Amino acid sequence: MDFSGRVVVVTGASRGIGKAIAAQFASCGATVACVATTLAGAEAAASSIGNGARGFECDVSNAEEVANLFESVQASLGVPAVLVNNAGIARDTLLIRMKDDDWDRVLDVNLKGAFHCIREVSRPMMKARYGRIVNIGSIIGQTGAAGQANYAASKAGIIGLTKSVAKELGSRGITCNAVSPGFIETDMTESLPAEMRETVVKTAPAGRLGVGEDVAAVVLFLASEAAGYVTGQNITVDGGLTL
Ligand code: NDP
Fold this sequence. Notes:
By secondary structure, the protein is of the alpha/beta class. The protein contains eight helices and seven strands.
């Protein structure tokens, strides 16, 4: 796949899945805007990725910071052709112990953050009559999970958001799809109990946890010109775990 001349914005690009996505885009010629909560984290990722990648600091839950982010990206790199909403957090706890702040923060980053970024990128993409938006969901958004009511609700919301954006922007040459990973080796899953890891390895037909590159491959396809007739879809990347 060739993304030469394309500007790609990846949120949550300092680590894990987002960093793998950003690296794969850069290796296919894209100029990548790596977004993270600290400039140091974003710039470190950008310099390791290369190909003119730049780091940007932004808390995606903050509408004003997101507006400034897209202004800076456009001024320094150009109009984004691709937006990957990958930034995400978890604050797992049983519902009866869940504080309002646990609920609000997870929804604000995972779902509202994606909404903020899509709202900012829509106008320039509509003007260009071209755009690819890929939102990172989770299998938990489809299955639910004890102790993850906030996270599951945010990821289920990503699917509704994705379908609505696909319907709203489709006539302007813009597609919007979701990619829902299963268990991927990152900081987020580092603390998984050993028994749960074993269960995943035994249950998933692929016989292993995923890596960021497994998710990145699907994101790049959906962001490519070849995927122009695919929109409003949610592609599960879980090694067959939820079959
Ligand atoms: P990590 O915890 O490894 O990385 C999270 C990334 O999100 C970091 O780059 C972090 O930046 C960034 N981030 C967090 N909060 C914000 C914020 N408010 N604004 C901007 N950036 C933010 O997560 P993963 O790589 O594991 O997960 C990436 C995505 O994939 C998430 O949406 C997650 O829900 C989803 N996912 C992950 C799965 C897994 O098994 N790992 C499974 C299913 C879905 P910083 O370094 O600055 O904190």
